[in-house]
Amino acid sequence: MITPTETTQQSEATERLGAQQDKPLVRGPDFLTAVRIPLAVAFLLIDNPVVRLAIVAAVAVTDIGDGIWARYIGSSKLGQALDPVADKLFMAAAFWVVFKSGTLTSLEVLGVLLRDIVAALSFLGVSVLRRPTTLPARAGGKAVTVCQALTLIAFLMDSDLVRPLAWATAAISLYAIADYVNVAWTRSGSDSR
After folding, report:
1. Average model confidence (pLDDT) for the chain?
2. Cα separation of 170 and 183, whole Å?
3. In terms of DSSP H, where are the helices of 74-161?
4. Residue 114's CB: how many other CB atoms inside 10 A?
5. Which of the chain's ends, N or C, has fewer CB atoms near its CB within 10 Å?
6. 39 lies in a domain?
7. Three-class SS state of 180
8. 1, part of any domain
9. Is there a domain that residue 101 lies in?
10. Handedness of CA 118, 142, 47, 40 (dihedral sign)
11. Each residue's pLDDT tens digit, 159-179
């Protein structure tokens, strides 16, 4: 016998699947997202703190802008994959520069990028298991992104706050990871009922 709760869950799952199938492959915001990839390369190659600060600002503007634009006109299949890849690629490139400068240790850089590393491994895991899922953006994840940007800005401005910001980012990353795991666990429990 199917309960009303199961019917609602099946209906929601069907709606999510239908919404995914209706999405176009590419939309305008995807081009704004793609700009972050050459910006990541530029951050690696240009050894000027002022230019790098401008690059961080441009990355922030494109990240916020593509999100607003995509919410306004709707997202695309490419955008759902490209946005997190562009974000993680930029952060990896930027914090490689921080690490190579000797400002932060490998453990501190690992802490700053922990949420991104776990997200990438999770994506690979669900891809290999062929159990695609998306989790909505959460406050903890957004806080990590802001702290990563602040850590980069502190590095570029040669501030004494780089190390404390890196550790704060690592701590918030642990919270964000626990929050995402909780949401995923709760969702998988409700999907299996």
Report:
1. 85
2. 20
3. 77-101, 106-128, 139-156
4. 19
5. N
6. yes
7. helix
8. no
9. yes
10. positive
11. 999 999 999 999 999 999 898
